[in-house]
Amino acid sequence: MTDFAxxxxxxxxxxxxxxxxxxxxxxLPKAASARVQKTLSDEWGEMLITGWNKAGWMDLPARLGDxxxxxxxxxxxxxxxxxTLSIKVYQALASALALRPERRVILSDTGNFPSDLYMAxxxxxxxxxxxxxxxxxxxxxxAHLNNEVAVLMLTQVDYRTGALHDMDALTRQAHGVGAxxxxxxxxxxxxxxxxxxxxxxxxxxxxxxxxLNSGPGGPAFIYVAPExxxxxxxxxxxxxxxxxxxxxELNYRPAPGIDRMRVGTPAILQMAALDAALDVWDHADIADxxxxxxxxxxLFVRAVESTCPQLQLASPRDGTKRGSQVSFRxxxxxxxxxxxxxxxxxxxxxxxxxxRFGFTPLYIGEAEVTDAARILSExxxxxxxxxxxxxxxxxxx
Length: 397
Ligand SMILES: *Cc1c(COP(=O)(O)O)cnc(C)c1O
Known about the structure:
Blueprint (H helix, E strand, L loop, with lengths): L3 H5 L2 E2 L5 E2 L8 E2 H18 L3 H4 L5 H12 L7 E4 L2 H14 L6 E5 L4 H14 L4 E5 L12 E7 L11 H10 L3 E5 L18 E5 L12 E5 L43 H10 L8 H22 L4 E2 L11 E5 L3 H10 L2 E2 L1 E3 L3 E5 L7 H16 L6 H4 L6
Parallel strand pairs: 2-13, 5-6, 5-7, 7-8, 8-9
Antiparallel strand pairs: 1-3, 4-10, 9-10, 11-12, 12-15, 14-15
Helix pairs in contact: 2-8, 4-8, 5-6, 9-11
């Protein structure tokens, strides 16, 4: 059993704050501060460029890939870290499309994160006018899977409502019509058990600064199913994805296996932070995390619904059908979220009217859940949100 007091003690959480936004940016693991400091002073500071070999910087993307891979059911050597998630979406989709050269349709849904859709649109434009991105309502995805679809590209957990796609069933159905799958696990990795190998996903991508707590701008990951790893052609053919980067050949030859999904020089400071952040998982079992997360989300839904009639639940009521977040609709959601933040309860807002609350048992317990719900109901009862400063929109919401 996971001891959540132990995991909580591994994070730096500011005094007086209830942090319900780990689904956007995880908090600072204490070990990450020390580790980044050590990388700066002992490695960069003392080793200079020799750190690429001596400190193992060059192998870090693959070593971290195996650590992240364990959390998503990926076999050793099938995941690599680097770049940002948007870039990894592009890479995975481009490779998947190239494996279905006779087909032209990318199928996705309107619940997908816009950057994933934008990257698909940009890629389709590059590939030619006959490529199309078809975007349907989340519940209609299965009905639109047919033998014209080259790639089914979905984010498992809807970033707004938290609704969870059935990854196993949709992957099976996609394969049934000859399509490949690209799964975005941005809101899944570190939030719920995922088994990319078990459900035979073809490609999967995700970020590490949400539930894996690598810090702002932390590296993304990409998984390529072993059966595709020698056939997948990288669209972003950078030198570190080359078979022999330090031979400096004039022509690109992909590295064998997952290394070909590397592009350029890895961000070592961010990767060092991630390496330390992943130590939390030496003390946490993802099945325990999932069970406790459902419990905390249910508790929050019950508390809010019984005291805040102004709010409307936007997430699935059944905890097994949503990720690790709960969203409520409220016309004045933006201002209300600012009022909450002013009282130390940090969630976020997604246009047009969603107040979003992420729960992760690694550092959130029942006391925080009930306190947050109580503060929310006080703000609503007193219209505490209706102040000019809470209506002013910041750049990041
Ligand atoms: C958070 C998130 C992103 C962000 O992509 P970056 O390139 O890391 O900024 C993309 N897609 C999904 C589904 C996300 O949840």
